Task: structure prediction
Amino acid sequence: MQLGTILPDVGKSKIGGNMLKRYITFVLLLVLTAFVLIGFSTFAEKSETEQATGEFITSQATIGTVEGDATLQKGDTGQTMPVGEGMIIGQNDSIKTGVGSKVDVIFDKDGEKSVVQVYANSELKIEQLLKNQTTGEKKTILDLAVGKVLVKAAKLEGESKFEVNTPTSIVGVRGTEFEVVVSAP
Result:
């Protein structure tokens, strides 16, 4: 099939041939522009998403009231020391309370405090203690191996989570007070 049969005027004059070339050039530029815009749009969406999700950083908690004997094992060094009021603790740290002891761990959620009371003969590890600097989302995961804790959790916003894991269950909260007990095997 010849070009003249599809577009009868094209090819018969110099003007028609130039019009076809201009038309093809215009269509190619239009398609190329569309691909460029779609590419930048996808890139911009990804950048906005990355900025919105941000990165999680490790956060900290503070030891409140201490009654009786309790020890803290630092997760990063393995060092064991007596628990004292005002101590800063973090991710992977563990608290072990003795007979008749109680320790308050305070998790400050931007002015709203969550308090975990660790009772006598308990072993509690701070499995995860993270905060997203960009979104404010928080992830607190505690691991109660044995003993009893009373959790007074502040109301959580967005995708934040506060969990207490035991050998047989996971308790997730959004802002409430509850008690978790794990009996010795």
Q: What stands out?
A: The chain has two domains: 3-53, 56-182. Residues 41-52 have pLDDT under 50 and may be disordered. Residues 3-53 form one domain. Helices lie at 3-6, 14-53.
